[in-house]
Amino acid sequence: MDAEEVKGSESAKKRGRPSRRAEIVRAAERLVRERGASGVTTRAIAESVPCSEGAIYVHFADRVDLLLAVLEEGLPEMLVPLRELKEKVGLGTPEENLIIAVEGLRHFQEKVVVMLCSLAGEPELRNRFQESLRSQGRGPQRGVATLAEYIDAEKALGRIAADIDGAVAGQMLMGSVFFQVFCAAVLGERLPGDVRELVGGVVR
To answer: What is the CATH number of the domain that holds 17?
Structure first.
């Protein structure tokens, strides 16, 4: 990034021009879906926005930093339907509440599965992503824990059978949905069954 690019960015901020960071992340996400992480370059991203390659470095230290942002910024979507579960304890039916939450997880996983699979060919990106998850206490284990807490809370109210293990049920729901999404996206094979059947089989 040269001095002129930095100067231009600072001038844009002073004039109130919106940051291009969000556009750059969206373009990178789109390209990752189309090409996989290994096929994404800063030049391709710049052409897609469009902007100069220097503009990318105003917001991101390097290519890996940008791809890390693409992966991380989708994570909050996974937490929205799960957070809502805590407010639904004792309301509606446990099965319907879990269906809504797990459906939200499925949509999130459909969005990121190709990007996550791309990590296999990007060791530096994979390591930095793992470090980020650990440092912020995020990742699938958090989703599993939230599902388990909800199931256990409903068990305490007698709305879910007492012999159902919340932690095991949470892992089954999270893992089964991801496996279905993985098979469809990577193998082109849709497994039988939907979210309603999955939830019913786990907690009914």
So the answer is: 1.10.10.60
